[in-house]
Amino acid sequence: MRSRFAAWMFVLCLCILLGFAPNASAQRQSTQPPPPVRGDPSQPPVTNAEDAQERIVAEMAKKAAKERAAALKSDTDKLLKLSVELKQSVDKSDENVLSLDVIKKAEEIEKLARSVKEKMKGPN
Asked: Considering the entire predicted model, what is its pTM?
């Protein structure tokens, strides 16, 4: 009698395990939705790490280009101002005398012009 009871318990446990096994494996195989993206809503959702990395690199490049353009604008404005000041200083001096201020302004213009030229070339 005891062996019959053990056999029935074994069969019952086996049936229970086999009955729940397909549900458990189906739960493990289901894919989870990707986490919500907290970035620009106009951008499509990120599907994997490589896409996220590419988007970050593109955004950084765009930001760097904007910063470079702003720096170029600022430097060219300063270059124009220095050029006007240099022209005024040269007009005030006579043909035999150039002041030290004129030479310093010319050097500063040269240095700033080289900087603008390098910024226009972009990052290497």
From this structure: 0.53
